[in-house]
Amino acid sequence: MAWQICLFFLLMSTCPDVITGSTFEHIKDSIMKLENDFNTSQSDVADDGSIFTHRFRNGLWTEANEKKILLAQMISMYSNMLKYATKTQTSDHLRDLIEALEEYKTQFSESLKKANDLIEVANLPMNDLKIQRKAVAEMYRVLLEVNAEEIKRLRRSRRQNPRSQKRLLPNLRG
Ligand SMILES: *[C@@H]1O[C@H](CO)[C@@H](O)[C@H](O)[C@H]1NC(C)=O
């Protein structure tokens, strides 16, 4: 049945991913095999909590574009880890996962650039005098951007809560 639908779409020039299954559907088994390689069912893995997944529940990443930045960075870290792992071991599932992560990195490339921006900013050596002088030289321009965001926020809250302005008017209802 699936191939007939696929053929139908092929005739219409492409066979979309919805029919062939998402990347994740292809790599589920490989993830299980990797879990086995790394003995993740042993209890010590859970010590000190998670490193990634608690961030999905902290309520900070509700905005889709922001969440993509977080996910892009996690994808990148997994990609680094698995590429490093290939130095000591090779297997079909490892290769599959690396390939899938490369695909995700392409899909998330813009978010990955945003994540890199954050990391570069976070890693600036602010105790270096040359960097400090650059920072001060750019401070007016940076805080001007901050101000623009603040004004947007004020306008938004005024729109959402018009009573805060009306409160100043005398009560005419008697
Ligand atoms: C997983 O357990 C096996 C068997 O005890 C061991 O040989 C292997 O080194 C372990 N792998 C890791 C990544 O700890």
Topology:
Layout: H1 2-11, H2 17-20, H3 23-37, H4 64-85, H5 92-107, H6 109-122, H7 129-160, H8 163-166
Helix pairs in contact: 3-5, 4-5, 4-6
Bound molecules: 2-acetamido-2-deoxy-beta-D-glucopyranose.
GO molecular function: cytokine activity; type II interferon receptor binding
Family: Belongs to the type II (or gamma) interferon family.
Organism: Python bivittatus (Burmese python)
Describe this structure in words.
The mean pLDDT is 87. 67% of the residues lie in helices and 0% in strands. Helix 4 packs across helix 6. It is mostly helical. Bound molecules: 2-acetamido-2-deoxy-beta-D-glucopyranose. The site of 2-acetamido-2-deoxy-beta-D-glucopyranose has 2 residues, from loops.
Compact overview of the structure:
The chain is built from 8 helices and no strands.
Q: How much β-strand is present in the residues?
A: under 5%
What is the percent of helical residues?
A: 55-70%
H/I helix tally:
8
End-to-end Cα distance, whole Å, is 73 Å
Instruction: Calculate the mean pLDDT score and round it.
Output: 87
GO molecular function: cytokine activity; type II interferon receptor binding
Subcellular location: Secreted
Keywords: Cytokine, Glycoprotein, Secreted, Signal
Family: Belongs to the type II (or gamma) interferon family.
List keywords for this structure.
about 170 residues, mainly alpha, binds 2-acetamido-2-deoxy-beta-D-glucopyranose
